[in-house]
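Risk register update: the risk of archive-format incompatibility is retired. Evidence:
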Amino acid sequence: MGELKQHQPPMTIDEQIENLKNIGLIVEDEEYAKRILNDISYFRLIKAYSLNLKTNEGRYRENITFKQLVDLYLFNTNFRQIIFPEIEKIEINVRCRISNYFAEKYGVLGYLKEDNFVNAKYHQEFMKDIQEEIRRNSKAPFVKNFRVNYAGGMLPIYALVEVFSFGTLSKFYKRLKRGHRSII
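Archived output:
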């Protein structure tokens, strides 16, 4: 492993613009660039959106402008605003289908029984995942409610899937018996 790089000292907005020009970025309107860099951080705009616009030597490819970077950033921002609500709808639907099917098939606490999964090893790993997800979400009012007011303090599957990260939800689905996955 090579020697680690040192962090760069902070730069003023004017220094940031000068640095960009020195590495080949065309800055047509410095006042516009100043306004943008005051609203969108240098790191967010330049580091995140220009990686594939540079040569191996770290210089911008020919004819790349500051405005193009801003346009790329704005496109990405607008795209995310359009797509994320749709992704959220899909995610909610997946959570709902999995929990409804599982609850109907095995009961609201059926996830506690290893027989309801592909194998015991997966179930043990899943139970560790559950404990971590509950710990991470322990301050959520509905988690507190189930932990305090229900026998055993366990969350029913329909509440449990709401604390799952999408990764844990995916693992849960993957660890279901094969026939059940295809029905969901």
